[in-house]
Amino acid sequence: MSFIIFLSSLVTLPAALANETNVLSHAWDTLTDNVSQTWNEPQHYDLYVPAITWHARFAYDKEKTDRYNERPWGIGFGQSRWDESGNWNGLYLMVFKDSYNKWEPIGGYGWEKTWRPLADENFHLGLGYTLGATARDNWNYIPIPVILPLASVGYGPATFQMTYIPGTYNNGNVYFAWLRFQF
């Protein structure tokens, strides 16, 4: 009986792999189309102002958090657009003071599914992701790829946007947020 199940799984495996390949191919095409359209047809230019870095106290020794910088002074610029579904797409470059008070650049593409739950269309909430690269002093400024979650709350051209950098004990587990102003 188990041999028959094994054979039937071999028969259906190519179809399952083809379907997975199609899904990945479609996701890649959607991503590259969104990046290209945001680059070539921006609707807005954005100013980014880093606001807060918070190291999750449950994941750090107190002596470490006492030494860390949680005021990420910096600035960033980008361009963005709202797609036909009302979702946000953005390309950005930002530089800020990291946990060790050293300059850290980051750049990439961000996407958020956006909801407008109130009668006032200016108020919006978003959930999504960012794909990009960063470089840190303590890693000799070698570019490091990042894939991080995004969340936001905004009104009109002003948005409070945030991410969480997961990690292990005494590493990562950082909430990072910034203000984004569209003009």
From TrEMBL:
Q: Which N-terminal stretch is annotated as signal sequence?
A: 1-18
Gene3D superfamilies according to UniProt? 2.40.160.20
Q: Which domain of life is it from?
A: Bacteria
**GO cellular component: a single term:** cell outer membrane
Q: Which reaction does it catalyse?
A: a lipid A + a 1,2-diacyl-sn-glycero-3-phosphocholine = a hepta-acyl lipid A + a 2-acyl-sn-glycero-3-phosphocholine; a lipid IIA + a 1,2-diacyl-sn-glycero-3-phosphocholine = a lipid IIB + a 2-acyl-sn-glycero-3-phosphocholine; a lipid IVA + a 1,2-diacyl-sn-glycero-3-phosphocholine = a lipid IVB + a 2-acyl-sn-glycero-3-phosphocholine
Q: Does the keyword Signal apply?
A: yes
Presence of the UniProt keyword Membrane in the record:
yes
Subcellular localization: Cell outer membrane
- Name the site position(s) for Role in the phospholipid gating: 169
Q: Which E.C. number(s) belong to this protein?
A: 2.3.1.251
Instruction: List the residue ranges forming a coiled coil, or say none.
Output: none
Its GO biological process annotations read:
lipid A biosynthetic process
Task: Please name the Pfam families in this protein's record.
Answer: PagP
Q: Where is the active site?
A: 55, 98, 99
Q: Where is this site: Role in lipopolysaccharide recognition?
A: 64
Keywords assigned: Acyltransferase, Cell outer membrane, Membrane, Signal, Transferase
Q: Which GO terms describe its molecular function?
A: palmitoyltransferase activity
Which family does the record assign? Answer: Belongs to the lipid A palmitoyltransferase family.
Assembly: Homodimer.
Physiological role = Transfers a fatty acid residue from the sn-1 position of a phospholipid to the N-linked hydroxyfatty acid chain on the proximal unit of lipid A or its precursors.
Record-linked NCBIfam families: PRK11045.1 (NF008271)
Q: What is this protein called?
A: Lipid A acyltransferase PagP
Name the gene for this chain.
Answer: pagP
